Structure formats: structure tokens, C-alpha cells
Amino acid sequence: MNSQPSLKVENLRTHFKLARPHLFAKQPTVYAVDGVSFEIEQGRTFGLVGESGCGKSTTALSVLRLVEPTSGSVILKGTDVCQLNQEELRLYRRNMQIIFQDPYSSMNPRATAGEIIRSPLKILNIGTPQEQNERVEELLKLVGLRPEQRNLYPHQFSGGQRQLICVARALAPNPDFIVCDEPVSALDVAIQSQILNLLVRLQREFNLTYLFISHDMAVVQHICDDIAVMYLGKIVEKTDRRSLFMNVKHPYTKALLAAVPTTDPKLKGSSAPLKGDVPSPINPPAGCHFHSRCPLAEARCVEEDPVLQEILPNHWVACHLA
């Protein structure tokens, strides 16, 4: 493992100001990401998991500055992405790419597969037209598509094939770091495994670093080396894959794991299902954000916000009772 992380995120916050309901009202704020920190070593996969609305996708978009963070730092290969101006950021994007959740909506329906894969090369002025054409053919073969399919349009491909095109597009500028924002959630199970195995193979071949966003614990267990669990804009547990699944500490993580279908009778009913809905990020609860749904909550949890602390080697938990 490298001594220096490929990506280091420190105290990242992304807050959205909303319109006032009336002239004298306080301006509402959505605390989408509220003090998130993590590191990813080169060639490893870091997973962010949690229920819908927990802030994991906003974290990923903020890391790439597709959404402007409110504060914090995102250091990729020694460069603070948050300090780059727009032209510097445009040029630096060759080092960081993204694979979106819905392959169809993330592609121009009027562009061919070849044009879609070639677009990052044209935008970043990488190579001559001939070199760009050769790169497109190379990438099509790399992800398992035929070179002649470059002339087809997105609607002529299956959902899995469209995601392969998106993977090829992300690889086009030869990045070091790729965000995978729920890249298989829109696909059926058989195709999911194909895409996940491809991502693992590409990572080994090109030493890629992944930030993998998912709500599916089984998918995360398959592909991630390290995992952080998010709840209402904050990380509540962070550790390596083995520790998370074998020695879980936070009651929210236990509830997520209990929801995963299993045939193991020892795991069935190991945690009561969560009650209620996720509180609003506009008005999060005082103290521990999870206390309103936690079966173990005490008076201290209502009043005092727990700090993310290392309770075991490389195992961080934000819980008074851990």
C-alpha cells in the first residue's frame, strides 16, 4: 500500500441554500454533505453506502466539482481540486472521470457510440483525429464491444451495452481516478456481475482508483476494499471490507446488513428493521442524527453529536455506544 493516498478528502461540506418561504423567514439550508473525510489508496476501491438521500452521490459529485462544495479540500495526486480555477479544472479533468447511474440519460441520443467515447478526447484536445479514432476502437474492444458498433446510436444498444460505452468513455483520457455512481443499479442482476467484473479487471490492468457509490451492500462487498457508511450527510462508520461485514459496530450499519437477503439463519433477524423515514437534511435532529430511529438511543444521543473516532485499528465509528 502506498504511503501517500491517491485521493484525500478532508472535512467536505456541500450545503444548498433554498428560497425563503416569505420575506422575513430564515433561509432554509440543505445539509447534503456535512463534514466528510476519507482517503483512497492508489489502485483501491472505496465504497460509500447508505439509504437514498444520505448524501453519498452529492459527495461524489462534490469531489469532482460537478457540484461546487461549500468548504473542505479534495486532494487528488497532490493537487487540491477545490483550489483550481475553471480552466485549470477543465484540463485536470483528464485525471478524474465518472460513470453515471443511468447510462441512457448520461449519453447524447443523437451521437453515435464512437462520438460519445471520443468526446472527452476532443474536449481535452488529446491526440490527433487519427489517434482519437484508434483510441475509440481500442476502448470498444477493451470493454467487449465490436469496433463496427461505433456507428450505432444509444437506442440500438441494450442497457448493459450502454453502460459499457460509458465505461469506455470514462477510460478515454486515461484517468487515474474514476467515480462509479451506482453504475449497476439500473441493470438486471446478470448484467450487474458482468459490469462489476469488468471494473475489477480494468482496475488491475491500469491501477485505477475508484470511489464506488451504492446502496446495495452485496455489490459493495463484492468490489470494495474499504467502505464508509453515510447517514444524513455524515460518515457513521468507516473501515475495510472484512471488518465492516465481520465486526460491525454502528447500529445503522447493522440495520443495513440485516436488510440484505441471506440464507444464513445466524444472520437472519440479527437486527431489528429500522422504523420511520430518514429525517430531513434541511432540519436534521440535534445530537446524533440517527437517534430518532436508533433502538439503542440514550439521553446522551439526543443532546450530543458523536465524533467519528478510531475504536479499533482502521475502524472508525461515530457512536456513543460503540
General description of the model:
This protein has helices at residues 56-63, 86-92, 113-123, 129-142, 159-171, 189-206, 217-223, 241-246, 251-258, 299-303; strands spanning 7-17, 29-40, 45-49, 71-76, 79-80, 96-99, 177-181, 209-214, 226-231, 234-240, 309-312, 315-317. The strands form two sheets. Strands 6-7-8-3-9-10-12-11 form an eight-stranded mixed beta sheet, with helices on both faces. A four-stranded antiparallel beta sheet has the order 2-1-4-5. A hairpin with a 2-residue loop joins strand 11 (309-312) and strand 12 (315-317). It is globular. The chain has 322 residues and is of the alpha/beta class.
Give a quick set of tags describing it.
single chain; alpha/beta; eight-stranded mixed sheet; four-stranded antiparallel sheet; 30% helix
State the helix count.
10
Give the overall pLDDT as a whole number.
91
Distance between the termini: 28 Å
Sum up the overall morphology in one term: globular
User: Which strand order spans the largest sheet, edge to edge or round the barrel?
Assistant: 6-7-8-3-9-10-12-11
Radius of gyration: 21 Å
Report strand %: 15-25%
| Helix content percent band | 25-40%
Strand tally is: 12
List the quaternary state of the chains.
Answer: single chain
Order of helices and strands: EEEHEEHEHHHEHEHEEHHHEE
Structural class: alpha/beta
Low-confidence stretches: none
Largest sheet: 8 strands, mixed
Summarize the helices and strands and which ones pair or pack.
Elements lengths: L6 E11 L11 E12 L4 E5 L6 H8 L7 E6 L2 E2 L5 H7 L3 E4 L13 H11 L5 H14 L16 H13 L5 E5 L7 H18 L2 E6 L2 H7 L2 E6 L2 E7 H6 L4 H8 L40 H5 L5 E4 L2 E3 L5
Parallel strand pairs: 3-8, 3-9, 6-7, 7-8
Antiparallel strand pairs: 1-2, 1-4, 4-5, 9-10, 10-12, 11-12
